[in-house]
Specification:
heterodimer; A: about 270 residues; mainly alpha; MetI-like fold; 2 domains; 13 helices; about 80% helix; about 0% strand; B: about 260 residues
């Protein structure tokens, strides 16, 4: 390839940009027409939002103190997220060890566990919660089981990559002086992955709190369920109070999780 | 004989372990989680999944349009969200705007991020009624929250030398942004957008079930009508959709990464 081919003339560049721009404009407007979605209608119909906000404010904070089920539902959401993270994370670690190239010598088990992980990853939470609601009945237990499944799906692949990115020399060194495969895992791999594993557990808890709130709406119990109830009987002032509670909850959990992760991984390694 | 096993040596592990067990027990009581109900539930669940087989092959034709609608909702949400996110990111970067604007914008972005999408869509449905409008707006807001924050962090870490040199030869703020900032953040922007598109595809399924239309609605409706074979068809279509977009976006992102490394 000569140099002349690789240079794009300014006029050509503009033409390219104009083509890309116009094609994407056409595609976007066509899809907008297809969905009957008019971005401008957001502004012309903004009075609906204003009406809703008028109904939502001021928030009725009495609902938190008067209704004794609200503090319990917060506790429920927290425990759902905690158990989902703990059990899901533990199972994810086991499957990740079975799927990682440097810990599992048998190809067939590796492939099977990889397939399990990717299958769990693509099944939407919505389906899992619908099935668990039928299986164990609506409530926090169904939500917790859904979180277990979704945690395995989301973090299994990550854990596998963490295990595969381990330094191999320490393991090889102890293997060469007669350590068994299990001993290599115990003394070489686990000490290496432990900090990032714990950090990811904290991150998973952070993610699961948000998911747990969403699952409540489909019958998973917890604060999401309370919110759905308040919304379906049109008590929008209660909804605002619950939403502010949720914001505080999510914010606190995120900050605590960030702080602990920073402490475990050391400053700067977080990213 | 017990010298190696005194408590002092393991105190570091014992206390956290005891706390962990206590918290787990407490959480299990709150969630009413126990193994007997899990066992019964699993049996029920497995037999229920048995009900879903085989998928209703004739319903595939009916699923194509809702699936396409879901993809379009995710697409439009990503497009509008990304465009707005660039604006928000510029307002939220300390080297572009002043301190007050930055902090206020960051506060709003943080507020959006701490609300799960499903709650936003419930509120928007209460405002705009059922339909794709609420779904698209929710995904747009979600995009602003995630991409806005990530991009703002990228912009704040840009090398100031370039922008200063442009300003010193007389470029105004807008010119600095268009010719100095945007080209630098472009690779990050594209990879975040693709990643967000993946998330939006997943979300559009869930939002559909709440009332934004699309394949999620089909799934929820089939479950509600006890048409489990049809629900299984919808599930297969959803899995294909998510799997396809994930692979596509990963491939594109890898390509961009390679091109970025070459330059």
């Amino acid at each position: 390839m000569s140099i002349a081919d690789s240079i794009t003339l300014p006029s050509k560049k503009y033409k390219q940009r104009a083509t890309i721009f116009s094609v994407s404009a056409v595609v976007i407007s066509l899809t907008c027409i297809y969905m009957g979605f008019n971005p401008i209608s957001f502004f012309t119909e903004f009075h609906y939002v204003r009406d809703l906000l008028g109904e939502m404010f001021p928030p009725n904070y009495h609902v938190i103190t008067d209704d004794s089920s609200i503090p319990f539902s917060i506790l429920q959401t927290l425990s759902m997220a905690f158990l989902g993270t703990l059990y899901g994370g533990a199972i994810a670690v086991v499957i990740a060890f079975l799927a990682a190239l440097n810990t599992m010598p048998y190809r067939i088990i590796r492939v099977l566990s990889s397939i399990t992980l990717s299958l769990l990853r693509v099944v939407p939470n919505l389906v899992v919660i619908l099935i668990f609601v039928i299986a164990v009945g609506p409530g926090a237990f169904a939500g917790m089981l859904t979180l277990v499944i979704s945690t395995i799906g989301t973090f299994g692949k990550l854990f596998r990559e963490i295990i595969e990115n381990c330094e191999s020399p320490p393991g090889e060194a102890i293997y060469s002086v007669g350590a068994s495969r299990v001993q290599v895992i115990k003394f070489s791999i686990i000490p290496q992955i432990l900090p990032s594993l714990i950090a990811n557990f904290l991150y998973a808890f952070d993610v699961n709190i948000r998911t747990a709130i969403g699952l409540g709406i489909f019958g998973g119990g917890g604060i999401g369920f309370a919110l759905q109830m308040a919304k379906s009987v049109m008590h929008f002032k209660d909804v605002t109070a619950l939403i502010s509670l949720i914001i505080v909850l999510v914010f606190l959990v995120e900050k605590i999780s960030d702080y602990l992760r920073r402490k475990i991984l050391g400053e700067g390694k977080l990213k | 004989m017990f010298k190696g096993y005194n408590l002092k040596r393991y105190r570091k592990y014992v206390l956290p372990l005891v706390i962990l067990i206590l918290v787990t027990e407490g959480a299990s009581i709150v969630c009413k989680a126990d193994f007997t109900s899990l066992e019964q539930g699993l049996l029920k669940g497995v037999s229920f999944i048995g009900f879903m087989f085989p998928p209703d092959w004739s319903a595939f034709g009916e699923m194509v349009q809702p699936a396409f609608q879901s993809i379009v909702i995710a697409f439009l949400g990503t497009v509008f969200g990304t465009l707005l996110a660039i604006v928000f990111a510029l307002f939220a970067a300390s080297n572009i705007t002043n301190k007050w604007v930055r902090n206020i914008t960051r506060f709003f972005i943080g507020l959006e991020r701490s609300l799960p999408e499903i709650i936003i869509v419930l509120l928007l449905i209460a405002a705009f009624g059922l339909g794709p409008m609420a779904g698209i707006l929710t995904l747009t807001l979600g995009c602003i929250g995630m991409i806005g924050k990530l991009l703002a962090d990228v912009i704040e870490e840009l090398d100031p030398v370039m922008m200063e040199s442009m300003a010193s030869v007389g470029a105004n703020k807008l010119q600095v942004i268009i010719f100095g900032v945007l080209p630098q953040i472009m690779p990050n922007l594209i990879s975040y957008t693709l990643f967000r598109f993946e998330i939006n595809i997943r979300l559009s399924v869930i939002l559909g079930a709440v009332g934004a239309g699309g394949i999620g609605y089909e799934l929820d409706y089939s479950f509600g009508m006890l048409q489990y074979h049809r629900a299984f068809t919808a599930l297969l279509v959803i899995i294909a959709m998510i799997f396809g977009t994930e692979h596509l976006s990963q491939r594109l992102r890898n390509k961009i990464k390679m091109e970025g490394a070459l330059k």
